[in-house]
Amino acid sequence: MKLMMILLAGLTLTACSQIPSTLPANNPQYQTYVNAGDSFEQRTFVSISDENIDLNTIEKRKLIVYFATWCHDSQRTMSQIMSSPLASDKHLQIIGIGREENVGNLKKFQQDYQLNFPLVSDQDRHYYNQVANAGIPRLILLDEANEVVKTVIGEMPNAIDHLVW
């Protein structure tokens, strides 16, 4: 019993969401605040390269990826994005939002994972708290008019496969 408790505590501490990933997305402890059909409220960001990102001027679909550099699920999802057709889709703008991440960590992560899209630092969870309370990576697909098409919690092995539109 002690071994089970220690194992459970260890798994809980290492989970990217800090909530067991077996909880369904509709669990009150695992909330998503944006749904398909909603207008995505956050329209402007500043990248770690000091570029202004204005979603209103990007006439493409957008994939917003909330992640953390230390999270294995986030690392896997970013690798999958870069090895998929999404990374070269000329009709899609990808933006990574580093939850509780500073610019230095994000620059290293962008280089290590050879990300070809802008990253944004969200050290105080200002952006993340607008879309969810727990769970990363979190992928939010927007249409050209910045309406939410789909949200995916990327704690599953092939999260990007669920982005079919």
Structure description:
The structure is a single chain. With 165 residues, the chain is an alpha/beta fold. It has a single domain (31-163), classed as 3-Layer(aba) Sandwich (Glutaredoxin). Helix content is 21%, strand content 22%. The protein contains three helices and seven strands, in the order αβββαβαβββ. It has helices spanning 2-14, 72-82, 103-112; strands at residues 44-46, 52-54, 61-67, 92-99, 119-122, 138-142, 148-153. The protein has a five-stranded mixed sheet. It has a two-stranded antiparallel ribbon with strand order 1-2. Strand 1 and strand 2 form a beta hairpin. The longest helix is centred in the N-terminal third of the chain and has 13 residues, at 2-14. The radius of gyration is 16 Å and the shape is globular. Residues 49-131 form the Alkyl hydroperoxide reductase subunit C/ Thiol specific antioxidant domain. Keywords: Signal. It comes from Pseudoalteromonas ulvae.
